[in-house]
Design brief:
Strand order of the largest sheet: 9-10-11-12-21-18-17-14-15
Shape: globular
CATH architecture of the largest domain: Distorted Sandwich
Radius of gyration: 23 Å
CATH topology of the largest domain: Beta-galactosidase, Chain A, domain 5
Largest sheet: 9 strands, antiparallel
């Protein structure tokens, strides 16, 4: 069985970030252990930020993840790429979470879903996960939210979060890169530079002082010196930070105790020597931190509702023409009912002075995606009705 879904729900206007999302299911083609299983694969593009998720699953066991070696799981990021270098194309970011008094656990290898929650001059999408061993409820989801803003080609923003009411808390969040490239010439050295110092990672990992070393450049010496990966975190959110690796390089952040959210900005430099790039990056670091702190992480659900209203007006006549199609009518009624339920939940939160939960934002966006997916079927039915001379 092979299915392909491509969504371009709202045409990008001038100055908007282009968004593209594809989802694919296909049989695993890696014998012998992979045979009989499926790959679930999603590709998401927010402008020049490209994310790739793949998990091998057992279709006969509720799509439980399966392991058979290399290729059974990827969650990669194509951003600031040079060859195979830049942010990690195969395993970019992840987190561990803990319950009160519990040991940290990682994330289930099959994502709960990929949700585009905002489009326009700012594009926003969630990749949501279940923690290992946790009860699967709306409040147990760990969401990695990506934000891409028009006019900031070399920067993207990421929030890793659990719901405020969740019993879970973030234990660690990590990001991985191959600065410059994967393999390198003999003698190439991986380095990390912060506002306080430079450290040769070939001599070992390094712990950072979050209060002073919240701007991090991953780069090289003696090879691939004109490319690197950049990260800024908020020192108010981080208790400890560590950088390690001589091939792939990882930045591991430990949030402050009980944290529900952690925010970073990720960027890159290409075609510029690391000395000049790092000088510019560190000189602008205070401004970069300020931009990170001012990112609005809530999705613009009012804009989404405006798009929903426009869509429903455009569909009024096609809906009239296919009124006798009971199956399609029931499908659309279900989508509209679910959307309205999520919208009323959002309105109730606002009336109480509470922020709209991330999960409600995802529900609204998903129902809009369902409406768009049904649109082609609806128009095809309307055209058929007209051709057949139905009133």
């Amino acid at each position: 069985m092979h299915t392909l879904l491509a969504l371009a729900l709202v045409a990008a206007g001038a100055g908007d970030v282009e968004v593209f999302l594809t989802s694919d299911r296909r049989p695993v083609d890696k014998p012998p252990k992979g045979i009989g299983n499926d790959f679930l694969e999603t590709r998401l593009e927010l402008g020049n930020l490209k994310l790739w998720y793949r998990a091998a699953v057992d279709p006969h066991n509720d799509d439980a993840p399966v392991r058979f070696g290399y290729g059974d799981f990827f969650f990669g990021c194509d951003f600031g790429r040079q060859g195979n270098g830049g942010w990690n194309l195969w395993n970019f970011t992840g987190a561990t979470v803990a319950t009160a008094g519990g040991k940290p656990v990682g994330l289930f290898r099959r994502a709960e879903g990929v949700h585009v929650v905002e489009r326009g001059a700012r594009a926003m999408a969630d990749v949501a996960w279940w923690p290992l061993g946790a009860e699967r409820t709306p409040t147990s989801i760990v969401a990695i939210r990506f934000v891409k803003r028009a006019g900031e080609a070399k920067w993207a923003y990421i929030e890793t979060s659990v719901a405020p009411e969740s019993p879970l808390a973030l234990a660690s969040v990590w990001y991985s890169a191959f600065p410059g490239n994967t393999s390198g010439p003999p003698g190439r050295e991986r380095w990390v530079t912060t506002p306080a110092r430079s450290h040769n990672l070939m001599t070992g990992e390094v712990s950072l002082d979050p209060a002073r070393e919240w701007a991090v450049s991953l780069h090289n010496k003696n090879g691939h010196e004109r490319a690197g990966s950049l990260l800024v975190f908020d020192p108010a959110e981080v208790a400890a930070a560590k950088v390690s690796g001589t091939y792939g390089v990882a930045i591991r952040l430990t949030p402050k105790a009980g944290a529900k959210r952690l925010h970073v900005a990720v960027g890159y430099f290409l075609g510029e020597h690391h000395r000049d790039a790092n000088a510019a990056f560190l000189g602008a670091a205070p401004a970069s931190l300020e931009r990170l702190r001012k990112v609005g992480w809530a999705a613009n659900i009012d804009r989404l509702h405006e798009a929903w209203t426009r869509q429903m007006k455009e569909l009024a006549e096609p809906l009239r023409l296919v009124a006798d199609d009971v199956e399609l009518s029931m499908r659309l009624d279900g989508v509209c009912t679910a959307y309205e339920e999520a919208r009323q939940a959002a309105i109730a939160c606002r009336k109480q002075g509470k922020p709209v939960p991330r999960g409600t934002e995802r529900r609204l966006a998903d129902r809009f995606a369902d409406l768009a997916a049904a649109r082609d079927t609806l128009f095809a039915g309307a055209v058929k009705a007209l051709l057949e001379g139905q009133p």
